[in-house]
Automatic annotation (TrEMBL):
Biological processes, Gene Ontology terms: methylation
Its EC number(s): 2.1.1.176
Annotated source species: Isoptericola halotolerans
Signal sequence segment: none
UniProt-recorded name of the protein: 16S rRNA (Cytosine967-C5)-methyltransferase
Highest taxon in the source lineage: Bacteria
Biased segments, Basic residues type: 15-26
InterPro entries in UniProt: MeTrfase_RsmB-F_NOP2_cat, MeTrfase_RsmB-F_NOP2_dom, NusB-like_sf, NusB_RsmB_TIM44, RCMT, SAM-dependent_MTases_sf
Gene3D superfamilies on file: NusB-like, Vaccinia Virus protein VP39
Region entry Disordered, spans: 1-43
GO molecular function terms listed in the Swiss-Prot or TrEMBL record: methyltransferase activity
One Pfam family recorded for the sequence: Methyltr_RsmB-F
Annotated SAM-dependent MTase RsmB/NOP-type domain residues: 203-507
Bias-annotated ranges (Basic and acidic residues): 1-14
């Protein structure tokens, strides 16, 4: 009887139909297969468009996504979903490429970039977010049909189903087992280029930390940072920071007395103090090194300060507020005119009598043009930005070892200019948002080898002096390079960007 019923369900071409269809109760869509699920939701579309801007225009996601969400009216949970999808995909691109390469029949660089970005977005939903597998696949296929075409959508469907058949932990075990060495395994599973992974291992060792921390460091780079505000001293009090948003919640920073952590879900731009420049969004490590320069011991006058590479202006605004409270004046110098405008905008709340000038100029020339003219000088040197990979995840895929040669030469010139511009007895802070030894200790050592009028200060002692009262900070072993005097912060240890600080005093 069972066989007869099955025969009754076959059509004239011998294809078996479902029970409803055999009784004439089925529904047949009028759409061709290529027209089904042609689109996806606005949040996924926004994330895809951000990835395309990053790839095609070398844009930064943190500059593209917020205005895009505002223009399209994407807010609340949808905005949070789009943000995690875009940033998470960019951070974990290397991991997902290693997985996708095992599910695609040809090398990934032979795929159209648009298709590869769709696959990465689907992989992140399947393996990095709490999205049901069927939704991750169907919505990503719909996105592909809408943005790329029906043909590639079939391939995307097949590949993502293959990805989803294996758990993330099993994928990572497979990648580790097939990697040629431990560093490559960490690089692939931790989603960093191999050369950066090696450099971070060397930096940990060179600053007195254990290389066993490398996996934790890579994981910290792949974790979205908290939004931290700076309350610029003398311009705003802590209890005024949430004005303009009754739902905003703040907690004190861990290290810097000026730092306040904003609870997730609050747009800092909605806060009145941020809007008028009395406060700003600034990493706590960035605040800490700025406070250290202002607190470094100084002999003689303390009247004229210089931020040599001031753009985009966060440190300059904090320095300006500190200078105002001490009766000093700040010169903010920036080589790029558009960044000079950002500095001027960022310093709009600093009292006029504390700002001598916001100007455009080549920092390498200041030491010749104004020798011995300043009491404190900040050199926030252009660098690879390897210390802020959690904040700018696309940077890791753009930087190459070749960048170091150009940057370290520039860093040495800027530091030399700063040391010429500071008076004897004055202090220079050399700062980079990179832990790479070539950009930190080796630059300073190279400059000091050619001078006899500079001494290294104990930056660790100064940083400890400016901490929140009662805070105890782990700065690594005392013999960790530079005689244990320099400071290197780390995302996995301090919850900050990987900021480096060297303090130097000009002698007679």
């Amino acid at each position: 009887m069972t066989d007869d019923r099955r025969d009754d369900r076959r059509d004239a071409r011998g294809r078996q139909r479902g029970a409803a269809r055999s009784r004439g109760q089925g529904h047949r869509t009028s759409q061709a297969p290529s027209q089904r699920r042609r689109a996806t939701d606005p949040a996924r579309t926004a994330a895809y468009d951000v990835l395309r801007e990053v790839d095609a225009s070398d844009a930064y996601a943190n500059l593209v996504l917020p205005p895009l969400l505002r223009e399209r009216g994407i807010a609340g949970r949808d905005a949070a979903f789009a943000t995690e999808l875009a940033y998470g995909t960019l951070r974990l691109r290397g991991r997902y490429d290693a997985i996708l390469s095992r599910c695609v029949s040809r090398p990934l660089d032979q795929l159209d970039p648009e298709v590869l970005d769709v696959l990465r977005l689907g992989a992140h939903q399947l393996l990095g977010m709490r999205v049901p597998a069927h939704a991750a696949v169907s919505e990503t296929v719909g996105l592909c049909r809408d943005r790329v075409g029906a043909g590639p959508a079939q391939m995307v469907n097949a590949v993502l189903r293959a990805v989803g058949r294996t758990s993330l932990s099993d994928w990572l075990d497979r990648i580790r087992a097939e990697a040629p060495d431990e560093t490559t395994a960490l690089a692939l599973t931790g989603s960093h280029p191999v050369w950066i992974t090696r450099a971070l291992r060397e930096a940990l060792h060179g600053t007195g930390r254990s290389t066993d921390e490398l996996a934790d460091l890579l994981e910290a780079d792949n974790t979205a940072p908290r939004v931290t505000l700076v309350a610029r001293p003398g311009l705003v009090e802590a209890d005024e920071l949430t004005a303009g948003d009754r739902e905003a919640r703040l907690s004190p920073g861990r290290w810097a007395p000026t730092a306040h952590v904003l609870a997730s879900g609050t747009d800092p731009a909605a806060l009145q103090a941020v809007g008028d420049g009395r406060a700003g969004v600034q990493d706590e490590g960035s605040q800490l090194v700025t406070l250290a320069l202002a607190a470094a011991p100084l002999g003689g006058r303390d009247e004229r300060w210089l931020d040599l590479c001031a753009g985009p202006g966060g440190k300059a605004a904090l320095l300006g507020a500190l200078a105002a409270g001490r009766g000093a004046r700040l010169v903010a110098n920036e080589v790029q005119p558009h960044r000079t405008r950002l500095v001027r905008q960022g310093m709009r709340a600093v009292p006029d009598d504390a700002v001598e000038a916001v100007r455009t100029g080549d920092g390498r020339e200041v030491g010749t043009e104004e020798p011995g003219a300043y009491d404190r000088v900040l050199v926030d040197a252009p660098c690879t930005g390897l210390g802020a990979l959690r904040r700018r995840p696309e940077s890791r895929w753009r930087r190459t070892p070749a960048d170091l040669g150009t940057l370290t030469g520039l860093q040495s010139e800027l530091l030399g200019s700063a040391l010429d511009a500071v008076r004897p007895g004055g202090v220079v802070a050399y700062v980079t948002c990179s832990p790479h030894l070539a950009e930190t200790r080796l630059v300073v050592d190279d400059v000091l080898r050619r001078r006899e009028d500079v001494e290294r200060l104990d930056a660790r002692a100064v940083v400890r002096d400016v901490l929140v009262p009662g805070a105890e900070i782990d700065l690594g072993a005392d013999d960790g390079g530079a005689g244990g005097l320099d400071v290197q912060l780390w995302p996995h240890v301090h919850g900050t960007d990987a900021m480096h600080l060297t303090l130097l005093r000009r002698t007679a």
